[in-house]
DNA-directed DNA polymerase (Methylocystis heyeri), 573 residues
Amino acid sequence: MRFLSVFLPRLPTDRILRRGGDAAERPFALWRKVKGAERIVAVNAAAQRRKVFPGMAVADARALYPALALEENDPESDAAMLEAVADWHRRFTPLAALDAPDGVMLDVTGAAQLFGGEASLLEEIGRRLAAQGFCARTALAPGPALARALARFSDVNIVPAEAAQEDIDAAAAELPIAALGLAEGVLAAMARAGLRRIGDLLARPRAPLAARFGERALTSLDALTCRIRDPITPRFEAPAFMAERRFPDGLTQLADIEATLRRLADELRPLLEREGVGARELEAVFYRVDGAVKRVRTGTSRPLRDPARIFALLRERLARLREEDGLDAGFGFDVLRLCADAVERMDDEQNPLGLREDESAAPGALDIARPVWASKGTPYDRSGDKKSHQNQIAGAHSYRKSQSTFAECALAPDLADIVDRLGARLGLRRVLRLYPQQAHLPEFAIAAIPAAYPAPSPSVAPDLSHAAAAREGFAPTPSRPARLFERPEPIEAMALAPDGPPLRFRWRRALHETVAFEGPERIAPPWWRAPKNAFTRDYFSVVDREGRRFWIYREGLLGEECACAPWFVHGLF
């Protein structure tokens, strides 16, 4: 394992000085109240040269250097800046963790060779951070605790991967005991015992050390000398699958950015195919030369690995980003990365009848191919007899049926593409699909859920169409209106009591006279969850003199549930 520690000793002041101007050349310090007293918490190099240090009272600092520029510290902004710096380091490895309050820890196992070796990697990180206005120290070691200590307390910045335990102990021996990261009281007790450096601890028996300073001291010592594994917690999980491109000169033109994304999608496909999976969540990350990071995320309604479709989704998201706040390339993007953050099992797909992918996707491809089968037979059957060809065509119908069955439990491929493209523009949660529910009340008979989600489990209403009802011996469900109102609209109606249809009714200030009707269809709310004010409904399909057809119901049974039953229009045919 190889860990790289980045120490930012002046992060708070660097954050302020990155605004520009001549502030970097002037003594500058940040202060905050500590137990009611104003104290210096961070200084820049110019202030440090004038003997202004953290912990000093603000009054003493001003007396020492009256021209000192002061500003109140903002810990939340410092934390946000550290997160941004950690995210920027993901250009070197996806495993970047915060080492608060002033550092970043990277797991660079196997990554250094991409940058010309470990020394070149440290040099590039230091150079890029300096160009962005950060004072930084870096170190690389087999364990994170040792890398952190070297970056803060030593001029040695690399412990080789092949170093033996004796070499690691020698590298740690010259470090001060503060490198252990223990509480101030424990460090003070060690100092009183004459223990100044890590080598002093390594030379002592372990049992007395544990008895006097606690097991925590030995655990920290073992982590520092890489005797135990000290894991880090990356800000983001490493992507399941990833492809990236690096450029010596940043990309600024949209055409170049899109062309690179298309190549990355091509590179991602074999990685997904090798594991038999498809992407469900995709993220394109754009690392700008000046350290800014842009992210474009999109989801899919089904596992996907086709480069053309992946690129189409990303292009939709880029278009939306440009409309919102613009994809500001600045001086250019020098690293582009495409990640499949979430994947699902994806069975290999075989084009029907040996057609090419574009042919099999065309409507009616099966019908077009049938004469070819009928005349030549399949590669497995050259006999050409009639019965054999009938079996082959039946197989084609079976294939089509299996495709439609898949469409019932998920989205059909063409519909999935539309949902994905709309989701890229609007967000997948905003693209809804209606599913039937096991409910007779019209307003509860369907549920709107995100189209990209799996279909609900089989609590759907039975198929009671006329043909299905005849087969099963049920009475068919009466026809339903093409337009169902979200809320039924009240009407004034004249009807024959107690259960006759409306003879005439007034709706939206217009009077309608009934010339034909069907009904009633009585629908009662479910007794196990019906609210107190829910009554039985009698629905009528009513036609007026102009030929308009309404779906009207009377709410409540006269004399049983209510004394006066109101009427409502619920839909239009």
